[in-house]
Amino acid sequence: MHTNVVIDGIPHKGEPSNMSDAYLAAVATRRTNYAITAKSSVSDEKLEAIVKQAVLHSPTSFNTQSSRAVLVLGAENTKLWNLVSESFLKGVPDDKKATAQARLTAFAGGYGSVLFFEDQAVIDDITAKIPIYTTLFPVWSTNAAGILQSVVWTSLTLEGLGASLQHFGADPAIAAEIHKAFNLPTTWTSTAIMPFGDPAAPPAEKTFTPIENRVKVVKA
Fold it and tell me: What are the TM regions of this chain, as residue ranges (predicted)?
């Protein structure tokens, strides 16, 4: 017997236990949550397994496997956000510094962070081999980065953790500090930083524009 499963107000016809419905229900739980604590209900070993499995199985164009990740925990997470704060706050106007500092302190107060990168050396190599796609490989690399981030984020959410996606690594000065602090290859280009921890509060409600304006179905 088929039933209608509703995810974020969108009906899905099928059994509630249908695998795609279970997957989409998991995707629907992912939210930005800035209110995180220095605790984790998930073991470090499980966190490592999540990141490794996500990197291993998230798709990349031409199977280049260009995505990279660094799991930062404990005192190393504090070090990460201290160096981000020190560099970032230099460019923040005085009247905005208190707000910025509060947000950065919240990230530093989390249990850990996942650093995401794309390896430019891999992208350069495939570009040299297939130059017809020179302008497209950077786009596809960005696609791969987003997929990996979503997989990790959703997985952490399913484990009961709160997380958000930050882009401080886009600042060359901050990126350089991160590479130096964690001895990372210079070819690794930062795509995002994901601070996480047990949630101190539920995430804010998410609003949606009409799905009819965003999806078009064409069939005979």
Answer: none
Global pTM reads 0.90
Secondary structure in 3-state letters for 102-160? HHHHHHHCCCEEEEEEEEHHHHHHHHHHCHHHCCCHHHHHHHHHHHHHHHHHHHHHHCC
Residues spanned by the domain of 68: 32-201
Q: Per-residue pLDDT averaged across 87-116, rounded?
A: 94
| Predicted confidence (pLDDT) per residue in 23-34, tens digit | 999 999 999 999
HSE at residue 164, side-chain half, CA atoms within 13 A, is 19
Confidence (pLDDT) at 1: 42
CATH of the domain at 176: 3.40.109.10
What SS3 state is found at 48? helix
Q: Is the pLDDT of residue 11 over 80?
A: no
